[in-house]
Amino acid sequence: MNPSPEQALAQLEIETPSWGYGDSGTRFATFQQAGRPRDVFERLEDAAEVHRLTGCAPAVALHFPWDRVDDLGALRDHATALGLRIGAVNPNLFQDADYKLGSITHTDERVRSKAVAHLLECVQIASELGSTAQSLWFADGTNYPGQGDLIARRHRMIDALAQVYAALPREQEMLVEYKLFEPAFYATDLADWGSALLVCQKLGERARVLVDLGHHAQGVNIEQIVAFLDDEGRLGGFHFNNRKYADDDLIVGSVNPFELFLIFVELARMAVLPRLTIDQAHNVEAKVEAMVLSVVNIQEAYAKALLVDRDALADAQSANDVLGAHEVLLDAYRSDVRPRCARVRAGAGAAEDPVAALRASGYVEKTISERGATAAVAGGWGQ
Ligand code: PSV
Ligand code: MN
């Protein structure tokens, strides 16, 4: 028997990103917030607070080397003691000076080997942390027409990823994320879902595409991409955030909640939801509160999608009742699901109103007194 909308909602699980708790900024400046976590152990503590308040954020995605520690066992134990598990492991091949002109697509074999060695190291790290996914995003690309041979770069990328895929233990999957531009401004090596899907198809069935909501051109129909990738069995997961202009990394659902709902209308058809991860940089907003609000926004979008009357929708579609079908979606979108979400959270031992509960809890004040208030600094990302 199918679960009721409330049961399905109760099964929702979201990964929050360790880097969403740490310092972030723009290319102009990075500002430290008072009470910022000083290391990955404290980033996990913030994530545990988000899970305590929302009841549906039990996993934390990590980014290496930002989250590097000497003792991975201690990190894993810390997560478990906080009621968390480690989500996807995200290798970082975009900050080392060697990667200025590319990592796994670089013309220099030495640089490519160094990049592959880091990817393999992350496979090992994931095994030790009990993580089941490598989440890969490459800043590789070119800035000027003629700068690189587009096909040769692509072949170097596929060769490198094939080596990593071959080293993946059975329990790990490979998520391949695309992004149309930035930092490359002419041709990004994995710019869109088609390029990512083709690479995944060459690698094997445990390679799937990761959709980051901020990584498309204006106006792209992301829900259709989601539907097609799922139809091919290649929808690996999400990086949730919202954008108005480009990869703005604003709170998911803050700018375009209807788009988020439509994405969940496609997701709610699936027997099992793919990996759902938040990927945001909170530059001016309070970080823990931003994460709590993000989780709540996702929960509400899913709750609305679960209310879509699928039979009525199918009937209207086969009768070619254009606006009748559209109305079915609007009916669900216009429903007030806040009481249902509050009930589900309370049922999980979390807060009915997580943002209010956070504000009343004194958690942020406690972190400021324990971790200190810090001044603005230049530089530093994700830590
Ligand atoms: C790149 O813009 C991205 O979306 C990738 O997922 C990175 O790992 C993440 O942001 C953090 O910078
Ligand atoms: Mn991302």
Task: Provide the descriptors you would attach to this structure in a database record.
12 strands; globular; binds alpha-D-psicofuranose; 14 helices; TIM Barrel; 13% strand; five-stranded parallel sheet; 383 residues; three-stranded parallel sheet; binds manganese (II) ion; 44% helix; alpha/beta
CATH top level label? Alpha Beta
Count the DSSP helices.
14
Contiguous low-pLDDT stretches (5 residues minimum) are: none
Largest sheet properties: 5 strands, parallel
Q: Percent of residues in beta strands?
A: 5-15%
Which CATH architecture would you pick?
A: Alpha-Beta Barrel
Helix content: 40-55%
Indicate the mean pLDDT: 96
The hetero molecules present are: alpha-D-psicofuranose, manganese (II) ion
Radius of gyration: 21 Å
Structural class: alpha/beta
Provide the CATH topology. TIM Barrel
Q: Which series of helices and strands comes N to C? A: HEEEHEHEHEEHEEHEHEHEHHHHHH
Strand order of the largest sheet: 6-8-10-11-12
Please tell me what the overall shape is.
globular
Q: Please report the distance between the alpha carbons of the first and last residues.
A: 45 Å
